[in-house]
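Q: Please design a sequence for this.
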């Protein structure tokens, strides 16, 4: 339920960070973020990609602490509003938006 790597980092670094966790990670986007996907119908990718009405629902399905996940998303959104990812130095696109518009989509990464 917390960020652990620059999501735009190279594949090796991301993969090693997931393996270091020792359990699967979850990637999430909101409706606005899904618009940048190569597949415009993320709902059609179920069951691999799951759709949720709230971050809390997402956290509950993946057995995460809803409060910690909400705090993580809120902290990420502060970085978006400030134009700087202080945690991992992730470069933001000019049109990046906060993660806040339902539905939310998630998939497990391992």
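A: Design:
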């Amino acid at each position: 339920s917390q960020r652990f790597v620059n999501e735009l980092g190279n594949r090796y670094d991301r993969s090693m960070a997931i393996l270091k966790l020792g359990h699967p990670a979850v990637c999430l986007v909101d409706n606005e973020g899904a618009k940048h996907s190569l597949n415009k119908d993320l709902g059609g990718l179920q069951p691999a990609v799951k759709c949720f009405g709230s971050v809390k629902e997402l956290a509950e399905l993946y057995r995460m602490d809803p409060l910690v996940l909400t705090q993580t998303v809120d902290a990420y959104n502060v970085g978006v509003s400030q134009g700087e990812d202080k945690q991992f130095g992730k470069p933001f696109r000019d049109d990046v938006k906060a993660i806040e518009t339902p539905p939310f989509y998630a998939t497990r990464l391992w």
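Q: Thanks. Anything notable?
A: The chain has a mean pLDDT of 91. DSSP finds four helices and three strands in the chain.
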